[in-house]
What does this fold into?
Amino acid sequence: MNITGAQALIKALEQQGTEVIFGYPGGAILPVYDPIIDSSIRHILVRHEQGAGHMAEGYAQATGRPGVAMVTSGPGATNIVTPISNAYMDSIPLVVITGQVPTAAIGTDAFQECDITGITMGITKHNWLIKDAKDIPDVIAEAFYVATTGRPGPVLVDVPKDVTQSMVDWHDCPSPAELNLPGYHPLLEGDPEAVAAAARMLAEAERPVLYVGGGVLKARAIEALAELVRLSGAPVVTTLMARGALPDSHPQNLGMPGMHGNYTAVTAMQRADLLFSLGARFDDRVTGRLDAFAPNAAIVHVDIDPAEIGKVRAANIGIVGDARHVIEALSTASATLPRTDLSAWWKTLDGWRAQFPMTYEPAAEGAVLKPQAIIERLNALSPKDAIVVAGVGQHQMWAAQHWDYEYPYTWINSGGAGTMGFAIPAAIGAKVGHPGRTVWAIDGDGCFQMTAQELVTARSEGIPIKVAILNNSYLGMVRQWQEMFYEERYSEVYLSQDLPNYVMWAEAMGCVGIRVDRAEDVDAAIERANSINDRPVVIDFRTDATEKVFPMVAAGASNDDIMVHPTQQVGA
Amino acid sequence: MPEPFSGTTTHSPITHHILSVLVENKAGVLARVAGLFSRRSFNIFSLAVAPADAHERFSRITIVVDAESAPLEQVVGQLNKLINVVEIRDLGSNEALERELLLATVHVPHQERDHLLESVADAGASVVDISDDAITVTLSGTPTALNAFEAMVAQGYPQCEIQRTGRVALPRLNNSATTA
It folds into this structure.
């Protein structure tokens, strides 16, 4: 069957199970936009290519399926570099298709030419430049396979215009077993001897901590984790990327560790004699000053990426494998082992939990809103399976701290890259993946202004997300650092109390806009937003600009020097 | 022959490790490898690359790594993640058979040539080009032998241009009979 390269590309995407493409057309990708008209794939026309990338990421994080984005060459391609970098840092399966100038023009500084495979070499798992249309089915199959297996991540396929315009004899995409990838063999099963030894260490430890990272969610290992948690009786910390991997209400869940983790989670890791890491990577935001991190802990490190083991902290036992397979094997190996009595450890932990719960000072009557209170009310008034998507900054940390995550895949944020503006497009992507679920973007006023135009996309495509702006008129996290570490010299962090007018802006984009200044209006606004399902809703919550995120471990400080909330400090 | 050159310049082998990396012979693969070293702050001391099979499906990249710039396991682990990297062999200096090629153009007056030619012959090098006031010689051998020859040439004849290829290496055979 003779078809165009463009038709072959769309057909290959269909064969890989693509249900939606987030994209933006342009010169070099133009041929591919023609067969989209006839395809079963839904195309969502974004308003900026960065939005396409983050939508695809939100879709992938919410559904577990790869997100697909398509843009043109040159600036179209460079505009999606930030989402690619974000996906690389957070191991999100993302397939990006970029148009490219015709092969004969490559290297001539042609109109809208840029070397996108060169630019993204360091932030993709792999990328391809297709030079012959007959390679399209194979490359697309390879791209999906590489993006979704092993440690997931972004891939990019660059397709010159003459390739999509040429005629080709179609052949079906090869199956994974038929792919020609001699250098790519992700391991699933952990080494049985290492698993047995790790299970013994876990059974014998007196102060173990299960350090659960985003890899557990990526591996769909929730049930396996719950079983290992039950068998081990050990306390669990869930990192920023793993919120929801174990319900927050689970008695063994200590919550989030790290720079803004709670006291018990942070200190449990510091005092542990065994850190049992599952799909986590000892990120600097978790370890604090590395040479002071968990000084007495032996390390078991389970990761699908061999290069992670020993990268930051030497492991006593490293296990390379898929988290679900390895955790199941660990449970099997643990089931028959006698277990050390952990009651003394739990007594210590429970003492910390009682003394240092996550806290904030409620607003005095009539005073400006506390951002943490908004999160609590959003949580209380929204369905339990609502999906929360955050941008980056104070609001992100409060959303991670003060929302109770009871289900996996209900918390989506930009962890490793810290990409401001992530929330709105990622929430749109999540809602496309789960149209029946409530999706709240919890955003800051700084982040909102970076990508708000995608609400036009949301309205015109019928994707009714809800946005809660915690609006303190500041770049709040930077302000917090300037207050604490730069002697209150506030440099370039004040945005404006008056600009923009968020209600008018929301309404101009076809959304419902609501402004809330007073505590007594919070619930009504949230309930109204939750009742609207025919268009997006934006609530502009005016919050206290002086509020800071606590606890906090200062950058470069030891986790032992965690600053708890001022009301909990000694002498308070 | 002069003492083996052991010291102060970039040719010291002491902190170096040899990685023999089999890669798919595809466009951009060298950039992927070199870019990985650069962005992870690993230092490359030398690098040689050429097709490794008759069909040119694979290439072998021999990388001499500055092992002090990063733990070797980290270098190998990150390299292995490149999709086009098929196999990595870490060759300790005792298990590696190493060879390198050197070209040197030495500017030397006609009447002073004999001494140079003698040294060239002693080192097992050979003359490949000649003019009124210069000679180009070549030597292939172990990096140690090349170091010694280079030192001799550079010290005796400051007016010279020297180009080395960087080393290539393969593992020694079991029960190896080679001595170099």
In short: The two ends of chain B are 16 Å apart (CA to CA). The longest strand of chain B covers residues 96-107. Chain B touches chain A at residues 23-24, 27-28, 31-32, 35-36, 39, 71, 73-74, 77-78, 80-87 (CB under 8 Å). Residues 97-171 of chain B form a domain with the Alpha-Beta Plaits fold (CATH 3.30.70.1150).
